[in-house]
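User: Sequence recovery, please. Input:
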């Protein structure tokens, strides 16, 4: 089930499924470690003998965010229970603290006791071996821990007017009007001996108060809340995360003393401030497009670790297919995300990303497949062996795009002091590798794996990014006074472009092709497949968007890759098998991807000659906004018939492409005449 409502601060990331159950909980890095591992953290309500978990089909749900914040706006109502719940969730912008505010309304004509239960299915550090859960009576809270991972769970209910208070006295320093402490608890075993977990214990409305469990464990806590007929009452819940008991206990004390609402309010204020200092003039753009732009910026921030790693996606649901996830740093995705944030005015996040790349690239000057958020090498399916001969398991565009994005960054901000230490340690090694990793006869880069990670060869996309990376390196060399080095990089880039025109441009097809490979006899194997990644030929500057060779190539993409259903959108390439829904290739060449669709919009904007020519670009931007989830979250792709999200959600690259395309549109529109 695709993820929705990601909330985070760069250390702690929490994400829900579409039934409003927590499914992902990452700490201390975004993307590492996952302490939920996709298992649901259930929430349920008991009223007068009836119990319903939030995944019950009869809940009426609205899952959105409060405007311009990373604070949720959840509305739930259940006709059988006759209750309504308005919820605000957030991860504090500064502390590693998840908070939830629930305003529970009794829609019945009678006073009733409503019991709310929260279940925690931790798999601390990504597994369920050696976990401990225990109830601590002094603070009336539950702790989960293993090694240096501690989680403390607590809550509070409001006491107003003649509402009866709980049976215990709150600490003297508790925030006025709130009584902290859980009312019910159970710690127990799960996933062994046919035990499902303590959540089953909650379904009769009364937990058995198990105080400790170790091994494969879970916990459930409950709150008994009397509510007058037609009235509402507040329930707060929080989860503190830290490396030791003292750290999470301190966070609990802070919440108890200051009040949980203060953390929710300050986090909302922070994200509004973070946005507004860089928002472009969007007066002439429709509100849905503006809203999606804002949501995309905020979503990007949730997927980026404070250590600099820009993570592709954090949706462990994909692991059911391949036993792996997208929770890694691909430097291709990261470079393009950093570029979008640069365009949007954000300086610090791209800087941290480039410094991360400086630390992890190989001694020889190339980037390997992908990296964990802590900088260690991540899992890979790219082989070192090809027919008994050692090969580099790389996608050369991942190396090239770092330099391209870094030059775009420097040309925009001119931060010499930041670039200075990177020139020798990052720029020169990567550029020297690319200059040498090519065929001297053709001038083209040697074969490597494509951006889709499905084929090996000489790809138009990779050739274009390599040209862009080397050209950027030449500009840096010129800036630092190394004219001979600059001439070398310019010369290699020119030879690459000549090779592309000779081998990747096919005059009989009147367009560029996706990939070529040279056979042992010297002849060429040509992959004529129309692929949306051909946009790289102009995106990174090797050709102008309106070049006579680019125009027919883009026309072929528009005609052959547009999905001809009511959903629409652009597929990656003809007969794309990844999560394939339909074999009717003439109508559905592949599932529509947001990034591919936005590439077409960007091209329309850049080739527009007057204001009226901008309409197709805006229509596609509006299409993307209208096909997001109600919260504004963009998946990797959508079903070509049902429009439901497919693969991971959110995909960081999707949101970056949206931000970048909107900014290109606004900039272009500003300079065009009527």
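Assistant: Recovered sequence (674 residues):
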């Amino acid at each position: 089930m695709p993820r929705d409502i990601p909330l985070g601060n760069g250390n702690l990331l929490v994400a829900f499924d579409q039934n409003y159950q927590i499914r992902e909980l990452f700490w201390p890095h975004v993307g590492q470690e996952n302490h939920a591992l996709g298992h649901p953290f259930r929430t349920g309500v008991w009223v007068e003998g009836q119990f319903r978990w939030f995944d019950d089909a009869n809940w009426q749900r609205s899952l959105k965010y409060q405007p311009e914040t990373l604070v949720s706006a959840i509305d739930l109502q259940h006709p059988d229970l006759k209750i309504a719940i308005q919820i605000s969730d957030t991860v504090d912008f500064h502390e590693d603290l998840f908070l939830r505010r629930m305003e529970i309304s009794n829609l019945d004509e009678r006073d009733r006791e409503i019991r709310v239960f929260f279940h925690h299915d931790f798999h601390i550090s990504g597994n369920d071996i050696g976990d401990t859960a225990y109830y601590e009576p002094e603070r009336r809270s539950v702790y989960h821990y293993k090694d240096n991972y501690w989680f403390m769970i607590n809550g509070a209910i409001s006491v107003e007017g003649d509402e009866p208070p709980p049976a215990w006295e709150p600490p003297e320093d508790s925030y006025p009007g709130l009584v902290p402490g859980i009312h019910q608890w159970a710690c127990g075993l799960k996933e062994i001996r046919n035990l499902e977990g303590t959540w089953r214990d909650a379904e009769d409305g009364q937990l058995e108060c198990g105080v400790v469990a170790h091994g494969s464990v879970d916990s459930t806590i409950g709150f008994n809340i009397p509510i007058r007929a037609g009235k509402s009452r507040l329930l707060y819940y929080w989860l503190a995360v830290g490396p030791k008991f003292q750290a999470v206990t301190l966070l609990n004390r802070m919440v108890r003393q200051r009040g949980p609402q203060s953390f929710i309010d300050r986090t909302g204020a922070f994200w509004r401030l973070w946005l507004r200092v860089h928002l472009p003039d969007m007066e002439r753009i429709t509100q849905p497009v503006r809203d999606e732009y804002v949501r995309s910026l905020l979503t990007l921030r949730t997927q980026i670790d404070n250590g600099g790693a820009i993570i592709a996606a954090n949706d462990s649901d994909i692991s059911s297919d391949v036993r792996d996830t997208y929770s890694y740093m691909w430097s291709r995705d990261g470079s393009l995300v950093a570029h979008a944030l640069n365009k949007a005015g954000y300086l610090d996040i791209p800087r941290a990303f480039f410094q991360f790349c400086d630390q992890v690239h190989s001694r020889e000057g190339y980037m390997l497949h992908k990296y964990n958020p802590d900088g260690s090498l991540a899992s890979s399916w790219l082989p070192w062996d090809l027919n008994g001969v050692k090969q580099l398991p790389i996608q050369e565009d991942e190396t090239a795009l770092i330099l391209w994005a870094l030059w775009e960054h420097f040309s925009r901000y001119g931060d010499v002091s930041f670039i200075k230490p990177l020139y020798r340690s990052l720029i020169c090694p990567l550029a020297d590798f690319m200059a040498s990793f090519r065929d001297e006869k053709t001038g083209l880069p040697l074969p490597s794996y494509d951006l889709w990670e499905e084929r090996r060869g000489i790809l138009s996309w990779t050739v274009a990014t390599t040209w862009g990376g080397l050209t950027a390196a030449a500009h840096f060399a010129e800036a630092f006074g190394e004219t001979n080095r600059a001439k070398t990089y310019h010369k290699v880039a020119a030879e690459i472009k000549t090779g592309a025109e000779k081998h990747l441009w096919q005059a009989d097809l009147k367009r560029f092709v996706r990939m070529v490979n040279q056979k042992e006899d010297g002849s060429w194997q040509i992959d004529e497949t129309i692929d949306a990644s051909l946009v790289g030929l102009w995106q990174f500057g090797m050709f102008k968007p309106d070049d006579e060779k680019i125009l027919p190539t883009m026309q072929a993409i528009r005609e052959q890759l547009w999905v001809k259903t009511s959903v629409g959108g652009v597929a990656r390439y003809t007969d794309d098998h990844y999560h394939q829904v339909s074999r009717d290739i003439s109508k559905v060449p592949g599932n529509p991807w947001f990034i591919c669709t936005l590439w077409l919009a960007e091209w329309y904007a850049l080739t527009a000659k007057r204001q009226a020519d901008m309409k197709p670009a805006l229509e596609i931007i509006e299409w993307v906004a209208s096909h997001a989830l109600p919260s504004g979250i963009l998946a990797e792709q959508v079903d070509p018939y049902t429009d439901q999200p497919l693969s991971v959600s959110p995909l960081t690259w999707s949101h970056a492409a949206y931000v970048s395309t909107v900014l290109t549109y606004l900039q272009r529109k500003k300079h065009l005449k009527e």
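The longest strand covers residues 217-227.
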